C-alpha cells in the first residue's frame, strides 16, 4: 500500500505541477464536443441521446490520451525501468497507474459534462447526478483497458497509432451500453429501464480490470 | 562457502539476427567489484540490463545470490538514464525511491542521502534546474538508497567533476566494505582500476578477463 501511495502520489504531484495531461484531456474533450455539436446540428439531432453519445466519444478519446500519458511519461524519462527493477509488484504499478489515469479522466469528464450541457441545451438537473455513476463505470473500465493496452503499445514503434486500433473495437459494446444508460438517465427514465446497460458496463469493468490485473505483469516487461 | 552475488554462465543475447553478447561467463563475490571495459557498441548496456533482470538472455543463465529469480530488493541500478523525475525536487525524488523500496521514514532517509552527496543547497530545487553533474550525484544516491547487495553501475563517473568522482568512489568503497558486490562499466579502465577486484574487457560481445591488472 505504501508503494501504491508513493507511485500515485508522485503521478498526481507531477500532474499538478505540469497540468499536461489534464489540460490536454479537457482541450481534446472540448474539440470533440464542438465538432459533434456542429455535425449533429446540421442533421437536426440534439438532446439527450446526442449529448450522451458525444460525451462518451469525448471520454473515449481523452481517456486514451490520459492512460497513455500515465505510462508514456515513465517511458520517456526511462523511469519505467526504475519501477521495474524496484521491488514493487507489477500489479501495484498497474493499479497506481490505473488510478492516476482515472483521476485525470474524471477531471476531464467533469469539464466535458459541463460543456455537453451547454452545447446540447440540456439542464443542470438531477439527471446529471444520476448519470455520474454510469460515467464513473465508463471511466474505470476504459481506464483499465487503455492502461494495459498502452503498456502493450509502448513496446511497438507505432504505439500511439496502435492503441486506438486495439482499444476502440474492444470497448465498443461498453460504449454502446454507456451511451444508452446515460441517455436514459438524462431523459429522466427510471434506473430500472437502464439496468441491462448498467449490468453490461459493470461486466466490462470487471473484465477489463481483471484482464489488466492478470496481464500487466507480462505486457510491461521488456522481454 | 559464500554464495556468489552474481553468476553469469554462457550468457548470449541477440536483437533479432544481430548477436550482441556471445557466451559470457562472469562470477562476482560479495564485497568485490568487477570492472567491465568496452568501447561504444560493445554490448555493455545490454549486459547491464541482463544483469539487472530487465532483459532475458537469449541463451545462458543468470543467477543472483544463488537464485535464478531476482530479488529486486537487493539490487541497485545506475544506467545512462538517471531515473529521476525532472519535475520533482531532489529531495522528493529520493523520498519517492525510499518509499518505493518500502523503507521506513523516507523523508529522513532522503535528507541523510542529500547530505551525504553534498546537495543540501539544491534539495528543494527541481531536478530539471540542477546541473548534469549534480543530477548524476543524485542518481547515484537513488541507486544506493536501499543499501543494495548488488550494485550495477553503467558508467557511473559520467558528468562528474573531480570532487564528484571522489565522492562516488568513496560511496562505492563503503558499499563494498559492507559486502555489496559491484559491477562497473566504462569506456576506459583508468578510473575503475583503483576500485575493481576484477577487470574484464568486453569486445564484440565477448567478455575476457583483462590480464593487465
Distance between the termini of chain B: 26 Å
> How many structural domains are formed by the residues of chain A?
1
Oligomer type:
heterodimer
Distance between the termini of chain A: 27 Å
Instruction: List the secondary-structure elements of chain A in sequence, H or E.
Output: HHHHHHHH
Helix proportion of chain A: over 70%
Strand segment tally of chain A: 0
| Biggest pleated-sheet summary of chain B | 6 strands, mixed
Percent strand of chain B equals 25-35%
The major β-sheet of chain A equals:
none
Shape of chain A: globular
What is the overall number of helices of chain A?
A: 8
Share of residues in strands of chain A:
under 5%
| CATH topology-level fold name of chain B | Rossmann fold
Task: Characterise this structure.
The complex is a heterodimer of chains A (223) and B (213). Chain A has one domain. Helices cover 85% and strands 0% of the residues of chain A. Chain A has eight helices and no strands. Chain A has helices at 2-18, 20-43, 48-77, 79-85, 90-119, 126-153, 159-186, 195-220. The longest helix of chain A has 30 residues, at 48-77. The two termini of chain A are 27 Å apart. In chain A, 50% of the residues are buried. The model of chain A has no long low-confidence stretch (mean pLDDT 85). In chain B, the strands form two sheets. Chain B has a six-stranded mixed β-sheet, sandwiched between helices. Chain B has a single domain (6-209), classed as 3-Layer(aba) Sandwich (Rossmann fold). In chain B, β6 (150-154), α5 and β7 form a beta-alpha-beta unit. Chain B is α/β, with parallel strands linked by helices and 213 residues long. Chain B is 30% helix and 27% strand. The chains are: A mainly alpha (223), B alpha/beta (213). The interface between A and B is medium-sized, with 23 and 28 residues.
Amino acid at each position: 500500500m505504501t508503494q501504491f501511495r508513493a507511485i500515485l502520489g508522485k503521478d498526481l504531484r507531477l500532474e499538478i505541477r505540469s497540468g499536461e495531461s489534464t489540460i490536454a484531456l479537457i482541450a481534446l474533450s472540448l474539440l470533440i464536443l464542438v465538432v459533434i455539436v456542429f455535425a449533429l446540428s446540421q442533421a437536426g439531432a440534439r438532446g439527450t441521446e446526442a449529448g450522451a453519445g458525444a460525451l462518451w466519444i469525448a471520454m473515449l478519446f481523452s481517456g486514451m490520451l490520459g492512460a497513455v500519458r500515465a505510462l508514456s511519461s515513465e517511458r520517456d524519462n526511462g523511469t519505467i525501468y526504475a519501477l521495474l527493477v524496484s521491488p514493487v509488484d507489477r500489479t501495484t504499478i498497474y493499479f497506481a497507474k490505473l488510478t492516476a489515469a482515472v483521476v485525470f479522466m474524471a477531471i476531464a469528464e467533469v469539464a466535458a459534462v459541463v460543456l455537453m450541457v451547454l452545447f446540447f441545451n440540456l439542464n443542470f438537473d438531477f439527471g446529471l447526478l444520476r448519470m455520474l455513476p454510469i460515467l464513473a463505470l465508463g471511466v474505470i473500465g476504459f481506464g483499465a483497458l487503455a492502461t494495459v493496452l498502452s503498456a502493450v503499445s509502448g513496446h511497438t514503434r507505432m504505439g500511439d497509432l496502435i492503441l486506438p486500433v486495439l482499444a476502440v473495437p474492444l470497448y465498443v459494446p461498453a460504449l454502446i451500453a454507456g451511451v444508452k444508460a446515460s441517455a436514459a438517465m438524462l431523459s429522466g427514465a427510471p434506473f430500472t429501464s437502464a439496468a441491462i446497460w448498467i449490468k453490461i458496463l459493470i461486466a466490462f469493468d470487471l473484465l477489463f480490470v481483471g484482464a489488466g490485473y492478470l496481464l500487466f505483469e507480462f505486457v510491461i516487461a521488456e522481454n | 562457502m559464500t554464495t556468489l552475488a552474481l553468476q553469469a554462465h554462457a550468457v548470449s543475447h541477440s536483437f533479432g539476427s544481430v548477436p550482441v553478447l556471445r557466451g559470457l561467463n562472469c562470477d562476482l563475490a560479495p564485497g568485490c567489484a568487477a570492472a567491465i571495459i568496452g568501447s561504444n557498441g560493445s554490448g555493455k548496456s545490454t549486459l547491464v540490463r541482463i544483469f539487472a533482470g530487465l532483459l532475458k538472455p537469449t541463451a545462458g543463465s543468470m543467477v543472483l545470490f544463488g537464485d535464478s529469480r531476482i530479488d529486486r530488493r537487493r539490487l541497485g541500478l545506475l544506467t545512462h538514464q538517471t531515473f529521476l523525475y525532472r519535475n520533482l525536487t531532489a529531495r522528493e525524488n529520493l523520498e519517492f525511491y525510499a518509499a518505493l523500496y518500502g523503507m521506513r521514514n523516507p523523508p529522513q532517509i532522503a535528507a541523510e542521502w542529500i547530505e551525504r552527496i553534498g546537495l543540501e543547497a539544491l534539495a528543494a530545487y527541481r531536478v530539471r534546474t540542477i546541473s548534469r553533474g549534480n543530477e548524476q550525484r543524485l542518481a547515484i544516491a537513488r541507486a544506493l538508497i536501499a543499501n543494495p547487495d548488488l550494485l550495477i553501475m553503467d558508467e557511473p563517473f559520467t558528468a562528474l567533476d573531480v570532487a564528484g568522482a571522489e565522492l562516488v568512489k568513496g560511496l562505492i568503497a563503503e558499499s563494498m566494505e559492507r559486502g555489496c558486490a559491484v559491477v562497473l562499466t566504462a569506456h576506459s579502465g583508468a578510473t575503475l582500476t583503483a576500485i575493481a577486484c576484477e577487470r574484464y574487457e568486453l569486445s564484440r560481445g565477448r567478455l575476457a578477463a583483462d590480464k593487465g591488472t
